[in-house]
Amino acid sequence: MRLLNLPLALLLALVSIPAVQAEETENSSDLHAQGRAIYNYRCYFCHGYSGDAKTLTASFIDPAPRDFTATDADTLSRKRMIEVVKNGKPDTAMHGFDRLLDKSEIGAVVDFVRREFMLEKKTNTRYHTVENGWPDHQRYRYAYPFATGEIALDTAAENLDPTQLRGKQLYLTSCISC
User: Fold this and answer.
1) 3-state DSSP call for residue 116?
2) Looking at the DSSP assignment, which residues form a beta bridge with residue 95?
3) Range(s) of the domain holding residue 155
4) Is 16 inside a domain boundary?
5) What pLDDT digit, counting tens, does each position of 25-36 carry?
6) Is residue 15, in this structure, part of any structural domain at all?
7) What is the rounded distance in angstroms from the CA atom of residue 164 to the CA atom of residue 142?
8) Residue 96: DSSP 8-state
9) Cα(25)–Cα(30) distance, integer angstroms
10) Cα three-residue angle 54-176-125, rounded to 5 degrees
11) What are phi and psi of 88, to 5 degrees?
12) Are residues 87 and 151 in the same domain?
């Protein structure tokens, strides 16, 4: 009787694997979204929307905030990143977030940074969110080339077309503070 139950048990185990994987993927996706939301709310100001530390704030901080796009994930461990997010880093502007974020939130934001910027080298394009006070992300699209550095802010007005001029003005009035 035991031998007959073994194949049945194996079959049931194999059938349940896709369900477990789907749940893990869904949870992983939820955690990634949570990490993105935390990053966009708490971290972008110094580390930049895309983890490259290209912000006005970063230009005034010494030492400069870490550029995650130039950081090797094998060199900077997840454990070390969690420690720094939790406790801060002495002699830098990086303060600890242990009073603002719980353990799972710290893990989510660290995992987001590692995956999005350090491993996949992606550009974070979803930072103007309702949660961050930006209900209409597309409204600011003309400023994107200035925010990303695609067009230098000191480009002479005569070298910009009307759309770019509008984008520069929008950047100067709405984006430069970030």
Assistant:
1) helix
2) 88
3) 136-178
4) no
5) 446 889 999 999
6) no
7) 7
8) -
9) 9
10) 60
11) 85, 180
12) no
